[in-house]
Write a structure and sequence with these properties.
The chain is α/β, with parallel strands linked by helices. Helices cover 53% and strands 9% of the residues. The radius of gyration is 15 Å and the shape is globular.
Length: 163
């Protein structure tokens, strides 16, 4: 499945990488989604840079042990022959990301995801971040059930209180 010849259904946001790589109430659903991406049942692109962002979130916000976080993420990246990984951040993409972030008042990382969606001619972003719905022309799909996502948010609030 080369990117240039295959229609892409969407771009995978960092939150789903985080959820699928650490213990939390949404882990199983997130793994199920990521497995569908890996098998091609869902034709989506996973930016490799999202693994760097996932490590940051896991270690600094969720207080996951750095060794555990790195091992989980590296194990997945070691599947590197998979065509779902997108490795490039060009200057053009970085500029677009910053301009989208400014225009839509989102984080620069979210601007990059929007930039990739436009590059791959898709309007879909797979994410747990509903704030992306404010981006004109972007459709947000949350592949985690509402019930599980609510349970995850409760878990997250409790975890952040303990910091």
């Amino acid at each position: 499945m080369g990117f240039s010849k295959t229609r892409i259904d969407g771009i995978v946001d960092v939150g789903l990488i985080v959820l699928s790589h650490c213990e939390n109430p949404a882990k199983l659903e997130a793994i199920d989604f990521i497995e569908k991406v890996f098998t091609g049942e869902i034709r989506a692109v996973i930016p490799v840079s999202s693994f760097i962002g996932a490590y940051h979130i896991m270690v600094h916000y969720l207080k996951i042990n750095p060794d555990e976080a790195a091992k989980e993420l590296v194990d997945t990246l070691s599947l590197g022959t998979m065509d779902v990984f997108y490795e490039e951040i060009s200057i053009e993409s970085a500029v677009e990301a910053l301009l989208f972030a400014r225009e839509f008042k989102v984080e620069s990382w979210d601007g990059y995801i929007v930039s990739l969606a436009r590059k791959f001619e898709t309007d879909t972003i797979f994410t747990i971040d509903k704030r992306l719905t404010k981006v004109k022309g972007i459709k947000v799909i949350v592949p985690i059930s509402e019930e599980t996502l609510s349970e995850y948010h409760r878990w997250l609030r409790n975890r952040l209180k303990r910091r």
